[in-house]
User: What shape does this take?
Amino acid sequence: MTEPAVVVQKAYDWALWIIPKVEKFPKSYRFSIGQSLVTASIELLMNLVDATYQARNAGSLVAAVREVNRIRYLVRLAKDLRAINLDGAMFLQVLPGG
Assistant: This one.
């Protein structure tokens, strides 16, 4: 099997990093903001996987951009509510506006 595209690997690494962080959210945010963040992260990964292995990938790429924007705002909201500590979060440097 060939190596995954760099963007797919980055999305996989992001999901692997964020899921345990969400498990540590306060209960009041874990099932709202936290679950939305996990869902958006997994959807981003799946859309990028789809785009990588499809000849016509515009729809998957548009969906991936939508998920990146959702993730960006969910992370910002979680940070402002102090549900997540982003010290040393290198992943956020690659997000637009991060």
About this structure: The chain has a mean pLDDT of 88. The radius of gyration is 14 Å. Residues 27-52 form the longest helix (26 residues). The chain is about 70% helix and 0% strand.
